[in-house]
Amino acid sequence: MSDLTIKNLKKVFEGLEIIKGIDLDIRDHEFVVFVGPSGCGKSTLLRLIAGLEEVTSGHIYLDDKEITDIAPAKRDLAMVFQTYALYPHMTVRKNMSFALDLAGIDKKEVEAKVNEAARILELEPLLERKPKALSGGQRQRVAIGRAIVRHPKIFLFDEPLSNLDAALRVQMRLELARLHQELNATMIYVTHDQVEAMTLADKVVVLNAGRVEQVGSPLTLYHHPVNRFVAGFIGTPKMGFLKAKVESVNAGGVLVSLSCGHQVEIAVKGEHLQRGSRVTLGVRPEHLRITAASDSTFKAKLTVSEHLGADTFCYVETADQEVLTVRAAGHFQMKFGSDIGLELDVQQCHLFDDQDRTLARITTPL
Amino acid sequence: MNTSSLPVEHSAQAEESSQSVQSQRRRKSKISLAMVSPSVVVLLAWMIIPLSMTIYFSFIRYNLLYPGDEGFVGLENYYYFMTDAGFTAGLTNTLWLVGSVLLISVVLGVLIAILVDNMFWGRGIVRVLLISPFFIMPTVSALVWKNLLLNPVSGVFAAIWNFFGATPIDWFTHYPLGAIIMIVSWQWVPFAVLMLMTAMQSLDQEQKDAARLDGAGPIAIFWHITLPHLMRPIAVVVMIETIFLLAIFAEIFTTTGGGPGYETTNLAFLIYTQALLEFDVGVASAGGLIAVVIANIAAFMLIRIVGKSLTEKH
Ligand SMILES: Nc1ncnc2c1ncn2[C@@H]1O[C@H](COP(=O)(O)OP(=O)(O)O)[C@@H](O)[C@H]1O
Ligand SMILES: [Mg+2]
């Protein structure tokens, strides 16, 4: 069992509140990813859980046992750091056995555990090397190995892949997913890279400025973001946002007019909206289509297109200087500055009120 | 280029051109040699002339009190220097002085560097104060210690001893070498602190965090993380301090004058007494060369011991 419960956790650094009251439940065997922009307090939250920072107020429970004030080593957690933090003068073997040696565990048992971790991570040929003689990916594996040998209840990862090159990052990502299966462990993983979040997580926690914005499965966050921040943060390329004005609210949805005059009806509940209220319409690149300029009242100008092979991402600018991204087919060709028309997949659009909260859908789109 | 190993059916033209390239290269290297030669010559002269003069003096009878009597005497000067009543004392005192000051400055340097690495109010000022003794001239600091601190009647130490009802110690009479070691340490601990303090800042905080998670307490972190991290700067401190400590002179000259007896005479001071108190340049030169040899032996051993951690890549 390894359930982690966080209650109203706060952390103040030099008079500045960095973590502003976080409540969180993490279940056994879950792969939880904390994601958010740089400086939002992800590392701080992880360090609070690990016990490396002192909690200002609030409580942390591991399996109903309060660990808020327990020493880091006694929490049954292991952490993998962004810079790997290997001990440079120790061999790989010694790096991995350090915690067990300090705990005074029997030599044979230590050896067995280190060998087991080395086998899982394919580190056997490197055991007698020093960290400086390893590549980035190998160092990362040693750092993970150091965590594995302790058989912790929860693994904590702080941006473990951010120092690796792109190809290695993909490989290590798959390896981490495999490791999660093989060890059947609970993992908390911090990243600012939402691709990592989407691919690895059972549950994503979106953090922003020391607060939890939304908790949910990757697809829930993608399809049902609770507010504009989550909508903009999850998904690449980003969701496009358009200023809009409410024309009328009725049973079937909300009719809004965009700044260019184009009107669309979105099937969301808008009881608290009045005619004339300012709202924001959000639309993802795949829910936009480029048409001939004459075919649509929603007009724009093509600025840049990025050809990725399978897809082409077109950046378009509306008359009101709002920039949208459109996903088009890979063979899409059009000249810079061309006038185009845009077609929205109204079923898939999101509407945010003036406080940037998402308006609930009337029917869930398929 | 080894042309004999080239295939024999080599067109004359190719040979010619390769030769011209070769000669061009040779000309170029000649030019560069000509360019660097002045500095090489100056550096060589800088080193060779004093050294050869010293060697020459050490083999002749050369006493300023008896001019005109400069005959070749073989190893006599060396014999006189090494059998001088002060030689054994000078050698052991030198080793004691260097050894103790090194030990004190490394141990205190490490402890102080770790201490001031923690955040506390006024850390900046404390750091500056800590390294400031290093910038005081040796003669000045020796005089300050002699007259203000260690003086058995009016010194600060005497006042402290009196305050606790103890009899003040006459340092320069009873523990002369100890007093010198104290003074020299006071000057060289700051150097160690400076070097190690800077090194502490490059210690990866996440390594310490990782060690804490691995269950290491402050002492285990010191032995397993901090000290290994400091090995390289410690080696640098030991090397540099050794070079300067072998030649300590001003502190001895201003305080004890090498005495009482030979108790605080080191090799540098012994050479001085030979040359300028007994006016025997020949014996002093021999002593200087012996000191060079000893310094080289010390340097060689140091490099064997601590140099390994310097050349090892991290
Ligand atoms: N030890 C500290 N002292 C003061 N401020 C800190 C400390 N650690 C982090 N912070 C501040 O907390 C904020 C969040 O930092 P962090 O948790 O590292 O963000 P990230 O989400 O990028 O990991 C930052 O603004 C940072 O300046
Ligand atoms: Mg961070």
From TrEMBL, chain B:
Native species: Nitrincola nitratireducens
ABC transmembrane type-1 domain segment(s): 91-302
Topological type in the membrane: Multi-pass membrane protein
Short name of one Pfam family: BPD_transp_1
TM spans (from-to): 33-59, 95-116, 128-145, 177-199, 234-253, 281-303
Single GO BP term: transmembrane transport
InterPro entries to which the protein is assigned, alphabetical: MetI-like, MetI-like_sf
CDD domains in UniProt: TM_PBP2
One cellular component (GO) term of this entry: plasma membrane
Record localization: Cell membrane
Family named by the database record: Belongs to the binding-protein-dependent transport system permease family.
Biased composition (Low complexity): 14-23
Region of interest (Disordered), ranges: 1-23
Signal sequence, renumbered to the chain: none
Protein name per UniProt: Inner membrane ABC transporter permease protein ycjO
Record key words, sorted: Cell membrane, Membrane, Transmembrane, Transmembrane helix, Transport
